[in-house]
C-alpha cells in the first residue's frame, strides 16, 4: 500500500503541472490583469508600470509562468495585482471556513445516504422505497439557490411569528455573542442543510442501485446458503462492496465543493471559497482567481487518491501490488 500511495503521489505531480499550466496560460491569454485599473480615471502610467514590473507582465508569458510558479510554491501565491495584498492569508481563511461546511455536510450526507440507500434496496418497491425515491427526485430537480432561499424564508417567517431565533440566515457569527459555539452552529445550520440535502439526494440513489446489484450477486446467495444471519449478509458482505460507487462520487464531489460552494455561500454570505471566488471575480483579481483554481485542482487530486486507498480497504479483490 505504501508503494501504491508513493506511486500515485508521483503520478499526481505531472497532473498538477498540467493543471497549473492550463490555469495560468488560460487566464493570462484571455484576460488582462490590469483591466480594472485601466478603467480608473486619472490612473497614472507610473502606477501601472510599477505593477507591470512587479508582475513581470512585459516578459514573455513563459517567463511570467515561471515567476508565478515560484510565488505559488515559496510565497503562498504571492500578492494580488491590485492593491499588492498577500493572497494566501485570505485564501487560507476561506479554505478553513468552507471546510467547516463541507466536512459536516458531507459526513451527514454520506451517513444518511447509506442508511436510506440500504433500506430502500432491502425494501424495494415498498412505501419507504417510493417515498425516498420521491424525495431524492425532488432534490435532483430543485435548484440549490431556490432551496436555500426557501430555507431562509421559512426561518425568517418562523422568527417573525414566534420571536424565537432558531438559525441565522446570513453571516458567520455575531460579535459579542453570549455563547460563541451556539452562535456559530446557528449560522452554519442552513448552509449545511442545503449542501447535505442536495448530496443526500445524489448519494442515496447511487447507494440504492449499488446495493441492489450486490444483493443479487452469487456470493450473497452463497452467504445466505451458509446460514449467515441477514444482518451479517447485508452489513459485512453486501454493504462493504456496495460502498465503492458512493466513495467515488463523494470523493469527486468533496473536491468540487471544497473548491467553492459558490451559490450556497453567496446566498448565506458565508466567507468561504465560494464568496472568495465571487469577490475576486468582481474585483478582477486574476491572480487570486488562479490561486482559487489551483487549490481546487489540488483538492480534487487529493480526494481521488484518498478514494483509491479506500477502495483497497473496502474490496479485498483490489490489490495495489
How many beta-strand runs?
A: 0
User: How do the helices and strands follow one another from N- to C-terminus?
Assistant: HHHHHHHHHHHHH
* Helical stretch tally: 13
Shape: flat
What is Rg? 24 Å
**Spans of at least 5 consecutive residues with low confidence:** none
Q: How many structural domains are formed by the residues?
A: 2
The name of the CATH superfamily of the largest domain reads: MetI-like
Q: Which sheet architecture does the biggest sheet show?
A: none
Short description:
With 321 residues, the chain is mainly α. The N and C termini lie close together (7 Å). The chain is built from 13 helices and no strands.
Explained architecture:
- This protein is mostly helical.
- It has 13 helices and no strands.
- Helix 5 runs antiparallel to helix 10 (230-258).
- It is flat.
- The N and C termini lie close together (7 Å).
- The relative contact order is 0.14.
- The model has no long low-confidence stretch (mean pLDDT 85).
What keywords describe this structure?
77% helix, MetI-like fold, mainly alpha
SSE blueprint:
Elements: H1 2-30, H2 35-38, H3 45-54, H4 61-74, H5 87-122, H6 127-141, H7 144-162, H8 180-215, H9 218-225, H10 230-258, H11 262-267, H12 273-283, H13 286-314
